[in-house]
Structure formats: structure tokens, C-alpha cells
Amino acid sequence: MRTKIDANALDLKDRVVTIKRVTKVVKGGRTMSFSALVVVGDGNGHVGFGLGKAQETTEAIRKGREDAKKNMIYIERDENDSLFHQVIGRFGAASVLLKPAPAGTGIIAGSSVRAVMELAGIKNVITKCIGSRNKHNVVHASVQGLKELKTPQQVARLRGKDVDELLA
Question: Under a CB-based contact definition with an 8 Å cutoff, are residues 117 and 127 in contact?
Fold first, then answer.
């Protein structure tokens, strides 16, 4: 059960993953606008992403940041600031494999997934993009994969066992 996160109470950092110039052809000619994909997080388990569209880049980034604050999730991490288990996040044609790694490995990931992992506070992970390399879909798939993570306590509760029984 996920609770609503108050983004204003957190010390958030943001990273612009991509800015696209979008052209709309209308009767009077072409209308230029910008689309910005922004990832925000506090480096301590909270992360979100958003898409902003506007006539100017700064306004598009601001809108993306606001959208990202509305869509934040919390990620549990293990003692190595890594994941508890391997998971595949899927969105559209993009799939992202997220594998836990031992301490000292660092973040082995492409730019889109790296932004999500760094701002979520995950320091040791190995990732692989499978399928589409579309940045928006890859970011969405990596967040989707993080949402699917379960802690050992959650798995033990689902199976009706103790955590010690599971890990033995």
C-alpha cells in the first residue's frame, strides 16, 4: 500500500533527462514548442518523473518538475543501497532489467536509468535496457520496475512465514 508523499517537505534535486523541440503545423505556419522530461528525487528513496510542455524551455522544465513532484514514489533499499532482488520493469516496447549489485559496484546504467537510480539513492545496481531506447519509455519502465520491488518482510508476510525462514 503506497501512501501519498509530500514533495514540499523533501529536499529535492532534479535532473533534465531530455528536451525535445516539437513543431506543430497549423494554417498560419509552424508553431514551435518544447517538451522536457524531468526526474526528481531526494537521494534517499523518493523519486518521480514528469513531462512538461511549453513554448519556452525553462517553462517546460518547470512544468516537468511540478509533474514529477506529483508522481513520486518511495523505494526501499538494502544495507548496500542496492535492490533486494532482480526485477524487470516494462512500459510500452521498453523493458529495463534491474539487478542488485554488491557494495562498491556503482551504478552501471545508461543516462536515462542512471538519472532515476541516482536520484532514488540507489548506489549499487546493474541495469540493461531491452527493446526500445526511447528515453521517456525507459524512464517510465525503470520507475515501474522499482514499484514492483518487494522487501523480504513483505514477501514473508505474503507467504505467512518469518523473515528468518525465508532467508535460510
Answer: yes
How many other CB atoms are found less than 10 A from the CB of residue 30? 8
Determine the Cα–Cα distance for residues 48 and 39; give it in Å rounded to an integer. Answer: 6
Chain position carrying cell 514477501:
155
Task: Name, in order, each residue with C-beta under 8 angstroms of 51's C-beta and a sequence gap of 6 or more.
Answer: 35, 36, 37, 38, 64, 67, 136
Per-residue HEC secondary structure of 57-118 comes to: HHHHHHHHHHHHHHCCEECCCCCCCCCCCCEEEEECCEEEEEEECCCCCCEECCHHHHHHHH
| Total Cβ atoms within 10 A of residue 133 | 12
Give the pLDDT score at 7: 65
Report pLDDT digits (tens) over 82-109.
Answer: 999 999 999 999 999 999 999 999 999 9
